[in-house]
Amino acid sequence: MKLQIKTQFILGLIAAGWITLVPVRAETTISTGHADIFGLGYVEGELELMIHKELAGTEVELDPASTIIRVNLGGYGARPTGTSFDFLGVSSSFLWTLPQDAVVAGQRGILFPGVGTEEVDPAVWGTGLLTITLKSIGSNSPGNFFLWNEDEFGQPTLFIDSTRLENFNSISQGAGVHEHYNWGFTEEGTYTMVFEATGTAGLSVDGGTPQSLSSGDVTYKFQVVPEPSSSTMLLIGLMGWVAARKRVVLKE
Asked: Across all residues in the chain, what is the average pLDDT?
């Protein structure tokens, strides 16, 4: 009886508008295959920053606020050699990386992240660049974040460094373009970062009026899995040896 009275009381408060029900958003975790971590759209005069991912054979848009981007164990390894990579830490340091190379990502069983503006029609948007800026990294984030790419000779260009956002905080590209970068994390744990997409629509468009647009602040969450233990590394090595041995036996 008491429970029924309490239930009716709460329902009355909801009906009167004193209590607002907020729907619970189920989080989606992505960790393998290809995904546009930064998927930009220009819809009805608004600039959008979403995640584009194929799930169950269907291309979908994911809300970054309810998506966990996971960096699997396959992304863990030594930083590239050479002084040009010193921005990642000392030469003996390790980190977790999501690579710009699709083959490497597939071999390691990790996410292949992209940056896509294909859904922004150059004929409608114009010639203005679209810029994605890291505005802040959460104080509870366990380590540092880097975004860079490498040319055909393996030489890096650094774009984002969470320790030096005053100098390295953004990437830019035109409409209708698809790019790939290396995404590096120095420690395991959960990183919360706030990004913003900006650009000027209507440049060099017949009859167009240039308009500066912003996606507003968009929060992203990256989950970096723990460093593998020595026993795990031994097991991975053993599995690799067994797989190699099977190939040899089959050839024989």
From this structure: 86
